[in-house]
Amino acid sequence: MPPALKRWLMHLRRKSLYMLTSSENWLPSGSNGLKSLFEGFQLQGKYFRNRVWVPPMCQYAAPQGAPTAWHERHYATLAISSGCVVVEATAISSVGRVTPEDLVLDDVSLLPAHQRLVDGIRRAGAVPGIQLCHAGRKGSRSSPWRGDLSLSVKEGGWPILGPSAIAFGENYAVPGEMTLGDIQQTIRQFVESAQLAERAGYEVIEVHGGHGRLVHSLLSPISNLRTDSYGGSFENRCLYAVELARTLRSALRADTILAFRLSCVDWVNNGIALEDSVQLSRLLGIEGVALIDCSSGGIVSPILKKTHPGYQVQFSNAIKVGAGIATAAVGEIFTIELSESILESAQADVIMMGRRSLIDPTYLMRCAALAGYWDLVPLPYRRAMERLLRAEIQLVPEL
Ligand SMILES: Cc1cc2nc3c(=O)[nH]c(=O)nc-3n(C[C@H](O)[C@H](O)[C@H](O)COP(=O)(O)O)c2cc1C
What we know:
- By secondary structure, this protein is an alpha/beta fold.
- It has one domain: Aldolase class I (TIM Barrel), CATH 3.20.20.
- Helices cover 37% and strands 14% of the residues.
- It contains 13 helices and 13 strands.
- It has helices at 3-22, 35-38, 69-78, 111-123, 180-200, 214-219, 234-251, 274-286, 313-323, 336-344, 355-359, 363-370, 379-389, and strands at residues 41-43, 46-48, 52-54, 84-91, 103-104, 127-133, 161-162, 176-177, 204-209, 257-263, 291-295, 326-330, 350-352.
- It has an eight-stranded parallel β-barrel, surrounded by six helices.
- Helix 3 runs parallel beside helix 4 (111-123), helix 5 (180-200) packs parallel to helix 7 (234-251) and helix 7 runs parallel beside helix 8.
- Flavin mononucleotide is lined by residues 55-58, 88-89, 131, 208, 211, 261, 295, 330-333, 353-356.
């Protein structure tokens, strides 16, 4: 990477960290009158206690594929005060992993560990969800802290699959072009994995259809140059996602929420444009998908585009209006005030708060307390919060 680009990226990274830490005291100021955010609501008949959800965030901490003690603690903490926690991208098969440390859900032996995660999330009052993923041509990598390098089979990697034999980038392996048999097999694996997820107790199942992973790579003309029924026209490129949604919906319980994360735009010429995603979302809605989680990018790298708080809300708004489907907004929604204004202006049904939840997991609880939603504050913490909020002279507290 050229040094100037590296410096610019470093500058952007520092700026984001600054935004996360400097704009708020640990008791945020603007939490009064937050109606839309903290009220309970129903999505396809399922009740969620509020509209702030935790989006999937990979931990790359599962060397055996199963959730560990780290995941249990992590997800139980993130569940405090949030409406739903969507557990990180979990591979539907070992070939579908991004790294050797991904969570996997392809066998009953993994159920007890997933059940413990579900239990922790549910006890904290949030609805347990999970994102299911096939990494496609972006698989067989080392984790970010091991350099994000392509892993050969000798190094513990595995042969990867994609719609066409086109590598994602310079330091990526060329995927094997999927046969029709491979395509059908991955759909079956998604279904088997989703059924295991249901058995573990997950109530929201999100398909990872973005960020250049397999589903996205079949949707995008940048990565899909197939000439059969899964490539070429827009309808053909959507066929996999539509078939997947249909097959999943018919295999899952009626009360399981099926969601899709999309990269709503590819941010490159001739890639997926917002109108395509609106049309696809309409098709997915017809197949019974209840929520589109509106992200972007990931089909090429790097994308030289400056982001700003709420930069993807426009996609959520366009899909909600254009496709008539519930949406989640995600991406630099770091404050409760921005979340509330997005909901108030009906640009999304759900706010996904990622890095803020990860780095500052009690943020939502503090906001909820200030707004008077004490039921979102765990009982053992309430006394501490109430004391801080009392507008009286503090005497030496009797703790
Ligand atoms: C540590 C980390 C891991 C992530 N892992 C995933 C993932 O597993 N699946 C996914 O779709 N997005 C993943 N993302 C993207 C987030 O879900 C989210 O879309 C992104 O961080 C933007 O939201 P934010 O600005 O609120 O953090 C990850 C992001 C982070 C920071």
